[in-house]
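Suppose a colleague, Dr. K., hands you the sequence of a protein chain of 100 amino acids and asks what its three-dimensional shape might be. Before reaching for any lab equipment, you can write down a predicted structure in token form. Begin with the sequence itself:
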Amino acid sequence: MFTYDREDRLYKLFWHDSLGYYPPSPASGGWSGKSLILVRGSLRGNARHVYEVIDDNSYSMKIQFRLMRKGGPTCSPASTGGFTDPLPIVSRKQSQPCPS
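The predicted structure, expressed as tokens, is then:
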């Protein structure tokens, strides 16, 4: 879930996964060009979430982890994906009501 904090002027991402783990605090960050970059930390390491706007109807997402291990931190990609709106805004404006 995304929110915007007016006090610190940062976007927040409350991340939940299917394994039951949730971070003690949300990821936070802001826009850099067409990318929304949010970072969160925990005892296990740091995660960086990057959402990049491709066009008006699609964006890409990637999550990178920086795990704290003996010998120093290691970075690894955790997840990537692309998302497209199946009914772009232009089509929504032109769509007709469903018949009863």
